[in-house]
Design brief:
Layout lengths: L2 E12 L2 E12 L3 E5 L6 H8 L7 E6 L2 E2 L9 E4 L11 H11 L5 H9 L15 H12 L6 E5 L7 H18 L2 E5 L3 H7 L2 E6 L2 E7 H5 L3 E8 L5 H8 L4 E6 L2 E7 L3 H10 L4 E7 L3 H13 L1
Helix pairs in contact: 2-3, 3-4, 4-5
Length: about 300
């Protein structure tokens, strides 16, 4: 696939504190790419460097094959970074008229982008009376003004209620499909990234610790199960019974969590029957992107 953004060994420090420490990643045309990280991990800093808002200390960034110089604004890139700011005393259309002049695009484009994000073209309501969800839609409309190939959204559902979160998620998915755009999304809502993104990178302490297809990252040749027994269990005895068949991840009273190779649960059940231990209940433990994220962050910190 065509690489639309290429980031190679990018570094950035503030007051001798490393915020980005050799970040390397690439994003293909048409992807919805997720960037995950705890607060202060460097994800917003990386977005600002791509957009030419701040300088990098080292490394190279290419957008659509062209090397970007420090503080150079890439063409055909739209963005929503941090809190959406507008002229509160104007309506949506008048706000976007001002931005259309700044971006040197025809005013006819304003109606197009308002319709695109589901806002009423003829609504005279002042932006100060908009809900957070409506302001976020207006921000995305502004990002689409110059018909960008790449849209960067930094925490696009921040401050929204659950209904607003779903609304913006569905809007992004619709726009990605309908407009065939490349999206880069940062978010602290991991289930959101799992729902929307094709690929994801996890950033911790300024470094990319994992990158890949979401489904591939979550797939594993191992499974975890919670086993509940009729009576209190001796963990040492259970460990000897299981031998190399399974690893005990945790134990509490009459319950244990084990990790096994896929399809081995039948063998585990047989071993306990042979040792006169009755399993009362078996539950498979499913893992989502949040579990994977926390495991990778913990591993990187260690």
């Amino acid at each position: 696939m065509e690489k639309i953004i290429e980031i190679n060994n990018v570094k950035k420090s503030f007051n001798n504190i490393k915020v980005l420490d050799g970040v390397t990643l690439s994003i293909s045309k048409g992807e919805i790419y997720g960037l995950l990280g705890l607060n202060g991990s460097g994800k917003t800093t990386l977005m600002k460097i791509i957009l030419g808002l701040i300088k990098k200390d080292f490394g190279e960034i290419k957008v659509k094959g062209s090397i970007m110089h420090d503080l150079e604004t890439p063409k055909k890139v739209g963005a929503v970074i941090e809190y959406p700011a507008f002229y509160e005393y104007l309506d949506a259309k008048r706000n976007l008229f001002i931005f259309s002049e700044l971006y040197d695009v025809p005013k006819t484009r304003v109606s197009d982008v308002l319709k695109l994000v589901g806002l009423d073209v003829n609504d005279k309501k002042k932006v100060k009376n908009y809900s957070m969800g409506m302001k976020q839609r207006l921000s995305i409309a502004r990002a689409f003004l110059n018909d960008p190939d790449i849209i960067i959204l930094d925490e696009p559902t921040n401050g929204l209620d659950p209904a607003g979160v779903v609304e913006i998620e569905n809007l992004i998915l619709k726009l990605a499909k309908k407009e065939n755009k490349t999206f880069i999304i940062t978010s602290h809502i991991l289930s959101q990234i799992e729902k929307m993104c094709n690929r994801v990178a996890i950033i911790s302490n300024g470094k990319i610790v994992t990158e890949g297809n979401v489904k591939t990252l979550l797939s594993s040749d191992k499974e975890q199960y919670m086993l509940e027994f009729d009576e209190y269990i001796d963990v040492h005895r259970v460990s000897k019974i299981l031998d190399d068949l399974a690893a005990i991840k945790s134990a509490d009273n009459n319950k244990i969590v084990i990790e096994i190779q896929k399809s081995d649960i039948g063998n585990i059940s047989s071993v306990f029957v042979e040792n006169h231990m009755h399993i009362k209940d078996i539950q498979k433990i499913t893992h989502d992107l949040e579990d994977f994220f926390m495991e990778r962050i913990k591993y990187n910190e260690n």
